Amino acid sequence: MAMQEVKHPIGGKVVNFTGAALVQDEAQAVLDYERPRSYEEPQPICAAGITAEENSRMRMCWNKAMCGEMKIPEGYQNIAVLIVKWNNEIDQLNSAAEVEDLQQLFSKGFKYPTEVINLHNITKPQLQLSQAVLHFVCKYDGPHNLLIVYYTGHAQYHETKEFLELFANDTKTDVPENRYPASANWDNAEKPLSIDAESDVLAILDTCFASNLYKNRQQDDLRVYEILAATGHDKVTAGPGPKSFTTALISALKELLDECGDLPFLTKQLCDKINLHPMRRKSQSHVWPMFKRYDRSIQLAPLQRTLAERKEEFNYDRTRGVLSLRLPLTVEFLTDQQISTLA
């Protein structure tokens, strides 16, 4: 069905709840009902005096109210985390302390089931990583779930063969007798996430060259798969410590948990918080969509109640249509109560 547009003869403020933004433009109401497809999400344009945080707040409030009214699933039924690091014995970066803090935040603060795999080189690290990812997918996969995989350690992107190699030590040639090289191919190991899983996927990569994965693959899929990369294309990132991506990630997650409470926040908001960290302003992080989906993004929020209770209350009906609505306003922003009443 083609888009129908109704123009009003007078100017005014317009709120676009699809993009959670107020715009200074000729007032118009747009109704766009169609079957779900991949399309480029409209970029929010902020009116004077309206901050990105206020736009995000209004969007979250609108989504929550609409989910309640339309009985649409709000958030994920389950969210699980797999943390991948190198065993302390061979981990040149000594990431154990940061990983422990992040693990506690995910498991205690957000109440996500969290597992840690310590890769060693007594057996082939590639087999360990592939087995850990496959086991994680088998255990937590589902069409209404989110799988988060976090990695910290060294990495190198191979342009010719187009894959990201993970390794424990930057002197990769120094392999003790009866041990295997401490390296693994990320692209091979993550195939259960990108190909076989039904869940949405968020890969958080605290490593150099992580953004190079974005140009490696973009495929059509009904799911959402995003990469939160510590730094940009062909860029390196700081190791564990005050300047590390993981330090900023932990700080940003805690801030958003305090600010949002039980309400969800977008990975874009998380990335923005990380980039505002005083030690990370010269090393910007990025969120990359690995699948060609522009109509929604991954949202994070603490899990409430038990998994059995969430399953019982969850609405399993799939979304079959999209309604984009723009309304003229005579004020610059709406309160949460006004948004809920409007919904």
At a glance:
The protein is α/β, with parallel strands linked by helices. The protein has helices at residues 52-70, 96-109, 125-140, 186-189, 191-196, 245-260, 267-275, 307-313, 336-342, and strands at 4-16, 21-34, 78-86, 114-119, 145-152, 154-158, 163-167, 183-185, 200-206, 225-229, 265-266, 286-289, 299-300, 322-324, 326-329.
- The proportion of residues forming helix, as a percent range, comes to 25-40%
Based on CA inertia axes, which overall geometry fits? globular
Average per-residue pLDDT, rounded, comes to: 81
Looking at how many chains there are and whether they match, the oligomeric state comes to single chain
Largest sheet: 6 strands, mixed
How much beta, percentage-wise?
A: 25-35%
- The radius of gyration is 22 Å
Query: What is the first-to-last residue Cα distance?
Result: 23 Å
Which class do the helix and strand fractions yield? Answer: alpha/beta
Following the backbone from N to C, one meets helices and strands in this order, namely EEHEHEHEEEEHHEEHEHEEHEEH
- Count of distinct strands: 15
Helix run count: 9
Strands in their spatial order, largest beta sheet: 4-3-5-9-10-12
Low-confidence regions: 1-46
